[in-house]
Amino acid sequence: MKNIRGYETFVKVEPLHKGWSGDQKYYIETAEGRRLLLRIADSSEYSRKKTEFAMMGQVAALGVPMSRPVDFGICDNGRSVYLLLTWCEGEDAEIVLPRLTEQEQYRLGKESGELLKRIHSLPAPEEGEEWSSRFNRKASQKIEKYKACGIKLNGDTEMTGYIENNRHLLAGRPQYYQHGDYHTGNMIVSGENTLSIIDFNRFDFGDPWEEFNRIVWSAAVSPQFATGQLDGYFGGKPPLEFFRLLAFYISSNLLSSIPWAIPFGEEEVVTMKKQAEEVLGWFDDMRNPVPTWYLQDSLMERG
């Protein structure tokens, strides 16, 4: 850590353990009173981390309130790579939202959708593979890994059937920059109820609508927030084509969540099983692509 530029100004260094990232994370205070977030990863991730830092700079330039990039480099005598970012003041949105009025939850959700639309304005590299072939292969791999893992979900037949019957929806989808893990767990709400976005380390490039596969976490916390996110992103009610793809991406993600959870233990497996049952209820066992949490006839003011 001593190789990090500005290390001599660090007067407080506290390790952070929240989240699933493999990065080592630290809360930093400097002698000048700055509050920063330090992320350290193995040097083998240098190329990806360099791109992560650069893309965060492009997102910040769009005016997105976020953990902004400050510095990037090599540390630990070449063994590690680091990102130094600004610290976002506030609490996790998933903690704050239940304390707010439904109207305020919807407003913050709408703001998150508008911010995501801005994030998705950054194009993917032109040399990337066509989306339909790329994600169809990915979906097939997820189904294979799920079938091989030995743990079964209630309703897996409905989910795999929906995927197989709707692969054609991927044709012609555009590709843009994705945050990669966009949900209430990676959003900070300040004391003034303003929103900031954090944890861009899972960034990717792909269909911007695939980004909504994580909305299951937000909807479980606040249907009003999730509804607002869709309304904010689309400037009103989303088209039916979006909901059909949403069900496709969420089904694909849920199947892969089981083999992902197994190494983390029984508790995580149970969490994913519970989420799958909840999602099946939202989509009426995959018969209705519009989830029940989307408050179409809500009395909340839209606009």
From TrEMBL:
Short name of one Pfam family: APH
Gene3D superfamilies: 3.90.1200.10
Coiled coil regions, renumbered to chain: none
Aminoglycoside phosphotransferase domain mapped to chain residues: 13-242
UniProt name for this protein: Aminoglycoside phosphotransferase domain-containing protein
Organism expressing this protein natively: bioreactor metagenome
